[in-house]
Amino acid sequence: MSFRKVEPDWTPRNKGSLYCSPACGMGCTRADYEAALHDGAALAKQMGPGWIPDVWENLGWYYNVTKGVVVIHPHIFRGQLLSYTAYFNSIKQLTAQGGTPEKALVDVLKKAKAMHKQIIQDLTVFIGVKDK
Ligand SMILES: [Zn+2]
Fold first, then answer.
1. pLDDT of residue 130
2. Ligand 1 geometric centre to CA of 24 (Å)
3. Are 64 and 54 spatial neighbours (Cβ–Cβ below 8 Å)?
4. pTM above 0.70, yes or no
5. Domain-wise residue ranges, the chain
6. Residues 72-90: pLDDT tens digits?
7. What distance in angstroms lies between residue 60's CA and the mean position of ligand 1's atoms?
């Protein structure tokens, strides 16, 4: 027996008031999609120049806005906008292993110095991003 990997089909289809992809199957509506498009564009406008909205489907229609390494996600529960989360996606946890604690420390500090440089660069790009 052999298995063929089938890629999920995330292309939404119109069916009456529905606008949902086979991979989702939740029964998302065209109105939900249009609301996500509208709200994503409104959030990008609210945030100012350089913010780009994104809309996607995954058991419902969702949106966020991005500028450089920063992403802002709204938290919507049962149609109510509850809060937002802002992600600064430059930073990650750093680890290093070594045969001695000193070696591990030296290596993790090297990574931290490189990350510091990256954070400064990402901040500079974020601040410098202009409307295109
Ligand atoms: Zn769907």
1. 58
2. 4
3. yes
4. yes
5. 13-88, 90-132
6. 999 988 889 999 999 888 7
7. 5
